[in-house]
Design a protein that fits this description.
The chain is of the alpha/beta class and 208 residues long. It contains seven helices and seven strands, in the order αααβαβαββαβαββ. The N and C termini lie far apart (49 Å).
């Protein structure tokens, strides 16, 4: 059985997460794969697991309360953030991880295979070119683009009562002001993540 570092266990506990040991072990295994592949493929600017825990795992899990529905697409997922941590901790939902970079989706397919993740599908495509067989309840983006661009290239993917969830650092005032009139900001949540000093905000949006 994989030894879970105290800092991962402590970080999860400090942020109110009480996952079964098997889930924590898979989160760690994902970080170990990311650290290994990152040496060759430059998947993320964060190189060490100790830094990845708050910046990748905790940051990803922080949007859990704002997800709606069962079908969720992570647009511009990159190294699988936030999609992989969310899928590992919410096995009852379906996660679709989309990125146009084949190098990154090859890594994600390896993660899916090695960790045996059943509730994810990896898609290599540009968001504006992707057509899904069914719409999505939540469309998530973490480091994809500005909010107006995100809405423009993903609006064809959202369900009638679905929502867009944009993960941001500082309060994105200018981006919010540029949102087209046929969309409405539901709420902007300022996140408090123990162990992460940088500002984090989540903008929840619906199409009118």
């Amino acid at each position: 059985m994989t030894q879970i570092p105290n800092d991962l266990s402590a970080a999860l506990t400090a942020n109110g997460y009480n996952f079964p040991p098997a889930v924590s072990e898979r989160l760690l295994a994902y970080l170990q794969l990311l650290e290994k592949w990152n040496q060759v493929f430059n998947l993320t600017a964060i190189n060490e697991i100790g830094e990845m825990i708050p910046l990748h795992i905790l940051d990803s899990l922080a949007i859990t309360p704002f997800l709606t529905g069962k079908r969720i697409i992570d647009v511009g997922t990159g190294a699988g953030l936030p999609g992989i941590p969310l899928a590992l901790t919410q096995p009852d939902k379906e996660f679709f991880l989309l990125d146009s970079n084949g190098k990154k989706t090859r890594f994600l397919n390896q993660v899916k295979l090695e960790l045996g993740i059943k509730n994810i599908e990896i898609i290599t495509a540009r968001a504006e070119d992707f057509t899904a067989p069914a719409p999505f309840d939540s469309i998530v983006s973490r480091a994809f683009s500005s909010i107006p661009v995100m809405l423009a290239v993903t609006q064809h993917l959202v369900a009638h009562d679905g929502q867009f969830i944009a993960m941001k650092g500082t309060f994105p005032q200018q981006e919010i002001e540029q949102i087209p009139a046929d969309f409405r900001v539901l709420e902007v949540h300022k996140l408090s993540i123990t162990g992460l000093s940088a500002q984090r905000h989540v903008v929840c949006i619906k199409r009118l």
